[in-house]
Design goal:
396 residues, alpha/beta, pyruvate-formate lyase- activating enzyme, nine-stranded mixed beta sheet, 29% helix, disordered N terminus, binds iron/sulfur cluster
Length: 396
């Protein structure tokens, strides 16, 4: 999930402030790189089995921490009890070793106190709530790069019950989606996938299932939401969610997903999972991200939307949203990603981008206005034509 502060309301007029982007002889944007020559297709997801699992003493003081340990040991995975509340032994001799070690480690910890004060998370939700931090997948554009400090170890929070109990203070105090008339029906929204991928970890923690049950029992205008590139939804079917959890599936054009999203479920698997939850009465959604105008993008994204249309066909009372997010990077995220994936051919060319400054002065590289306008026009038109049930929440 990508925090962002420059989203465009879908009702806002298109800003087309330049000539059409230059095209090469094939009719494609020249500012993008051909993804077909990337490394071999990535391996699709299996349920993640961490190589090393550690638990801190503080985490064992929490009932959910002990539940996670029991669950993981029940899967036949050893859990190492740490003597202190510090994670050690993650650094290797090289950045690559550190990355590999951290990415295969799961730590059961107590959430940092700063995480207990919720922050707005525009444009997705009123509040960001973290049940974990880190992700075992290997997306070469990963949103976490540059956002999290230190080796990318996955931390899951043992103090889940306290985290969920603390949400009541925020109900009715939304500052993002609650302010928009078009989204008022969602109530106060809580985004639970900013720094992780929930379905990558659910089989090890049970945390998001408990969160769904918490919101299902919370008889108020509130909604839990998360987005995922995984498809392991069986344990959510039949839960008393009462429409108060929206699960969105992050999808992309086939060449991008197949080449850049290592260790995730395939897009067809994600869409099958979307259908499963929609049939079970969950509000669902598409996070189409990161949108890239790579060669053949109209054809590939068109095929994706057609596949979505098939996935939602015949679902009664379908509640389907779409969030449209173009690719962007920062100097910091580029540096981290090139450290993690030195062979990547993901386009991160500052010269072909526009600099955009956020509310607090942070700078990111986005596509130039003419490219953004072309993409946005195409997506809004084709979504309406191919998946008319989809309600676009924002474009950014
Ligand atoms: Fe990063 Fe991919 Fe995991 Fe999302 S699914 S957090 S982009 S590695």
């Amino acid at each position: 999930m990508e925090p962002d502060d420059d989203a465009v309301d879908v009702d806002a007029p298109l800003a087309v402030d330049g000539p059409a982007a230059p095209h090469d002889a094939s009719g494609e944007q020249v500012a993008t790189r051909d993804l077909s020559g990337l490394a071999p297709p990535t391996r699709p997801a299996r349920r993640w089995t961490p190589r090393r699992v550690v638990v801190t003493p503080a985490a064992l003081d929490h009932a959910h921490g002990r539940r996670i340990v029991d669950r993981i040991e029940g899967l036949g995975i050893a859990v190492e009890r740490l003597r202190a509340n510090r994670l050690v032994g993650l650094r290797g001799e090289t950045d690559r070793q550190t990355y590999a070690r951290a990415k295969s480690t799961l730590a059961i910890v107590v959430s940092p106190p700063s995480r207990r004060t919720l922050q707005p998370i525009a444009p997705s939700a009123d509040w960001r709530v973290d049940l974990a931090e880190g992700c075992p997948a290997h997306c070469q554009y990963c949103y976490l790069a540059g956002s999290l400090s230190g080796p990318p170890v996955t931390r899951v929070y043992a103090d889940l019950d306290d985290i969920l109990a603390g949400l009541a203070d925020y109900a009715g105090r939304g500052t993002v989606t609650s302010r928009r008339a078009a989204r008022a029906d969602e109530g106060t929204t809580f985004e639970a996938s900013c720094y992780t991928d929930p379905l990558a970890l659910e089989h090890l923690t049970g945390s998001w299932r408990r969160a769904v049950e918490h919101f299902g029992a919370w008889d108020a205008p509130v909604q839990l939401r998360w987005t995922t590139k995984y498809a392991d939804v069986a344990t959510f079917v039949g839960l008393p969610s009462h429409g108060r959890t929206r699960v969105r599936f992050s999808v992309n054009a086939a060449p991008i997903s197949e080449r850049l999203e290592g260790g995730t479920a395939t897009v067809p698997q994600r869409l099958d999972a979307l259908r499963t939850l929609a049939l079970d009465g969950y509000p669902v959604g598409l996070t189409i991200a990161p949108i890239m105008p790579a060669p053949g993008w109209r054809e590939h994204y068109g095929a994706l939307l057609d596949r979505v249309g098939v996935a939602v066909a015949g679902v009664d009372r379908l509640d389907l949203t779409a969030e449209l997010i173009t690719h962007r990077f920062t100097p910091g995220s580029k540096e981290v990603l090139l450290g993690w994936y030195p062979q990547t051919r993901l386009e991160m060319d500052e010269q072909s981008r526009r600099r955009k400054f956020g509310r607090f002065g942070a700078m990111k590289y986005v596509y130039p206005p003419e490219v953004m306008a072309e993409l946005r026009t195409w997506f809004e038109r084709e979504l309406a034509a191919r998946v008319p049930a989809a309600r676009v929440l924002y474009w950014t």
